[in-house]
Design goal:
about 130 residues, two-stranded antiparallel ribbon
Amino acid sequence: MMISTKGRYALRVMIDIAENGASAPVSLHDVANRQQISIKYLEAIISMLVKAGFVDSFRGKTGGYMLKKAPDEITVKEIIEVTEGTTAPVACTGVNCPRHSECMTAPLWNELEKKIGEYLENITLKNVIDGELN
């Protein structure tokens, strides 16, 4: 699995909201301009982030989006899983593959998925913002 633009943009959106929405909601148009992402694409991403409970939506003239939790309480893994569904490096990890029980490479992919998950689980949004990556 390769992280798609949806996953990468979701992380960028969350960082933008964290940096610019501490005291007031951030407009999606402002995020789109700063991040150079189409508003249409952002609407789909922000919808996923709201539904997942990472972001609050505020209506009205001064409306926009704010994080529901502090940046140090949101992991990169959580954001990626909301947008991508998994952090698996290949589509055939886990027992979903009909050849799983006889596949000699399954343990390799399963272990890689575990290591990717552990790494991303230990990096918060705040770590990324502060440049504190292990």
